[in-house]
């Protein structure tokens, strides 16, 4: 269990981070795995689902709910089980994400992107993963995410040593249209049946990308 000082630092950092980046909840008052904001993309060009993204293009920037990640890693010492739990939470959050990206404020943003350590199995939700190719961005991101984990989990060093291959930060991207097609109203019922069938075969929570 993290000590009170570490908990206070974590909570203060999260509040400052959310204000600085103007992060928005998917549904006010409901806890979801993602926060979003509209931003101009500043990284290297990439393409996803046939859409080219270049520096300056508007995008939907996603940020993981670190409180949910912290809780999952604190309550289950097995990292694989904790990630499976987070994937289940992602499944719950995707319809809300699909609704939000259809709002007028995101009308000119055609791609969602984010950077996270929790990415194994996320392809089942329409996302693609790419390595962070910029050495500086990779180093700073790894340092930031590693220190968040250390603040909230006393076994962070052991977790990072034994699961380094799983907890490598990556760029996670998807087209807005893909997310709407998979999880928007009118598409969700069929997708739920498909994912339930895949989960029954052990696919939806697979950690092998």
Automatic annotation (TrEMBL):
Pfam entry (one): YkoP
Residues annotated as domain YkoP-like: 4-182
InterPro entries: YkoP-like_dom
Entry protein name: YkoP-like domain-containing protein
Organism field: Alicyclobacillus vulcanalis
């Amino acid at each position: 269990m993290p000590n009170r000082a570490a908990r206070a630092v974590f909570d203060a950092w999260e509040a400052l981070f959310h204000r600085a980046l103007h992060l928005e909840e998917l549904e006010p008052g409901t806890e979801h795995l993602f926060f979003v904001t509209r931003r101009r993309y500043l990284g290297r060009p990439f393409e996803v689902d046939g859409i080219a993204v270049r520096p300056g293009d508007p995008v939907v920037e996603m940020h993981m709910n670190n409180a949910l990640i912290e809780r999952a890693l604190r309550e289950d010492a097995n990292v694989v089980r904790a990630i499976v739990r987070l994937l289940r939470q992602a499944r719950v959050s995707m319809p809300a994400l699909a609704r939000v990206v259809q709002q007028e404020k995101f009308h000119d943003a055609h791609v969602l992107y984010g950077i996270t350590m929790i990415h194994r199995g996320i392809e089942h939700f329409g996302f693609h993963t790419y390595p962070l190719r910029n050495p500086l961005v990779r180093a700073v991101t790894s340092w930031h995410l590693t220190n968040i984990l250390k603040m909230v989990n006393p076994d962070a060093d052991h977790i990072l040593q034994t699961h380094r291959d799983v907890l490598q930060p990556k760029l996670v991207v998807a087209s807005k249209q893909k997310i709407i097609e998979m999880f928007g109203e009118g598409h969700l019922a069929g997708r739920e049946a498909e994912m339930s069938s895949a989960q029954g075969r052990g696919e939806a929570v697979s950690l092998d990308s």
